[in-house]
């Protein structure tokens, strides 16, 4: 069953302003409202003042966190009773307290449901993981620096490593992990993975016939370990001193998911401890945009400034998916890509 009311945009759009304007003609949309800039204090004041009491769905993004702050328990407590859907632009949604939204839902007629943008980010994120893996295996940071500093021909360049014949271990075999697995197979790699539960055979086949292994085996036998899981309270620092000590000697670690999955202090210590770790490729960081100085200083660390989805095609697809979630929510009463934590809310 559909729903009628206003839809609120938080933050800016980059590719789909026409589609956003077109929402005004979609079933259930009575009015479009915008809060593109401002502050958390001002936004909460507007919420408490009743300006958004007719809003049934809102569009937010990781970028809009700069405007409203995170959707934590405090902010959720100020949201209007009319609100039913938080449609988020981002595959990761650790800046939304889904538990608070779900808890708030228990006090409302139909609840606050949350969607994200999986699938739309799969290719770009997996491509970035491959790029980081190859760059880290080839110790690309070193020759790039030598070249830019004009020392080519005088500086010694390192011998590197090929991906062929190596075992890629994937922690978190969701749609991004499966996309990565298929691409890694093209580089002559074998693929193994660890998940909360084993995938159905059809999905393992989609993931280049990846082999399910336990956590200890993944750490001990992977030549390259890629992190492709969500950040939750349970997964924060899932890679720490203990896990680093259990990894195969000479491992390469790649992270395109969330920086807080890794204890960066422990990672820097391990990198400085002889040849335990061959190299690291990172697109995300524990306290970004700040980066641990030990990572910046280490030539065996290949770094990117969180650009995993930063392509025209992917960012537009993400924004369109949020629009589609809003349309589906109001017209049909369901989100297309509701977050997995809310599977039991129906």
UniProtKB/TrEMBL annotation:
| PROSITE patterns named in the record | D_2_HYDROXYACID_DH_1
**Lineage: superkingdom:** Eukaryota
Q: Which residues form the D-isomer specific 2-hydroxyacid dehydrogenase catalytic domain?
A: 65-339
* Matches recorded under InterPro entries: D-isomer_2-hydroxyacid_DH, D-isomer_2_OHA_DH_cat_dom, D-isomer_DH_CS1, D-isomer_DH_NAD-bd, NAD(P)-bd_dom_sf
Signal peptide coordinates: 1-18
GO function terms (MF aspect): glyoxylate reductase (NADPH) activity; hydroxypyruvate reductase [NAD(P)H] activity; NAD binding
Keywords annotated in UniProt: NAD, Oxidoreductase, Signal
| Keyword check for NAD | yes
What are its GO cellular component terms? cytosol
Annotated ranges, domain D-isomer specific 2-hydroxyacid dehydrogenase NAD-binding: 131-308
Pfam families (UniProt xref):
2-Hacid_dh, 2-Hacid_dh_C
Q: Which family does it belong to?
A: Belongs to the D-isomer specific 2-hydroxyacid dehydrogenase family.
Q: What is this protein called?
A: Putative 2-hydroxyacid dehydrogenase-like protein
Q: Record the organism.
A: Hapsidospora chrysogenum (strain ATCC 11550 / CBS 779.69 / DSM 880 / IAM 14645 / JCM 23072 / IMI 49137)
